[in-house]
Amino acid sequence: MKKKIVFVPLDDRPCNKLFPQYLFGDVDIAFTVFQELGEKKKPAEYERVKEFLVEECRDAFGLVLSMDMLLYGGLLPSRLHDLDKETLGERAELLHLLRGENPKLLIYGFQTIMRCPTYSSSVEEPDYYGICGHEIYKSGEISHKQMLGLPVEENLEEIHKKILPGALEDYLARRERNVAMDQEVLSYVEDGTLDWLVFPQDDCSPYGYAALDQQKVLGRVRELGLEERVAVYPGADEVGMTLVSRMLNALHGRRPKVYVKYAAESAKELIPLYEGSPLAGTIGKHLDAAGCVETDSPKEASIVLAMSAAGVMEEAAWQPSQRAEYHEGRDLEGFTEFLQEMKRAGKIVTLADNAYANGGDLALVRMLNEKGMLMELDGYAGWNTSSNTLGTAIAEGVAAYYQGKTAAHRNFMAERYLEDAGYCSVVRQRVSKAAGDKGMESSFLNEKQGVFSRLAEAELQAFAAESLSSVADKVRILHLSMPWERAFEVDLRAEYVE
What we know:
Helices cover about 45% and strands about 15% of the residues. By secondary structure, it is an alpha/beta fold.
């Protein structure tokens, strides 16, 4: 009999709402998913979240809960709300009620540390961030460096003059309330209400307001001695998959051993774009959060996690890179041969294609295609940040470990090649330009399905015919739309037929 897992996603985007269900919905667990998620900046209604949790958790095995959805109504509302600390504290108290009604319920939560983008844009931030967002970021970066006694070139007073009146005060007040809740929720781990808690840091840098908030959270974790039950690391949109992986491992009472294979040893020290810590350390935290354990021996491993990263990182849209550091010590031929050897040895092999940010490595994907390896692998991911990619690839490995490569799993892999390598690395840029020529703005398409999605689907078909030719006749696109009416993310569903 399947175990019931209650799932409250971070928001309504497919990566948060649908990816965990696509990967883990076939065997062992049955999802009950909160559906009234709001949309983009529109928050979900707290009373609806509460009613759902109270009703569904009474007979559930486990709960994977976005605390941002519970407290603020979603990811973007967490950056926009005007809720006071008292209201937020009352909402968090719901956890005690759920624990009281089902003492055996396994509760895994995740709560983002509010990001601070380097650029000026109001698409996902308050309106004023579109005018002076960069200056707000610089304010945090300079202040942080000054606190540490590090040299700075910019003048903080001059930066502040460029910020709209009241904007920085509003921004910092919200950050203060959010980080206070981050710290308060740790008490729910301390008293056993929460079994495991992740603080993913969304689009972070080594210095600035987000890094300072992370330090506050880490300090409180250490004060309470919760290092074994709380994880803090870069990421966000992949955490739902990570925690379902952990729950599946808990259900079976196992911790799969994972061997990490790097395409370039220099990647271990890489600080990926939009992240604030070296890759090797981040990998260890992702594996632990997923309920896995890293091993130095490929022979002992059940899962091989392959990392395509180089010693530097650029945007996928700029590839192929002209920087020598991208190619020094990165032997893709030997890398792919090792993966084939691991498959012959009976290992589960999943590939985190994080050589570039915001898309897959086209040279690597074409090499996999030429060698007939695309669907021989047990997992592939190459979307958004390195941590988004990493968490997805780990989840694919865990899913294959317990379920094998089900039809749903193969469909998901086909979607990843189409979306991560095709759409993110190639098609998004081409179609955005074509749409711009038609007077459309890629950040505000004003349509979920229409001109843009039709152009994108046609371009994806062409990409598959060229770069995924070994499997193109087996892959069929079933649906393509723009869930937030912008070019950045796509809702893509595909079918892979043997």
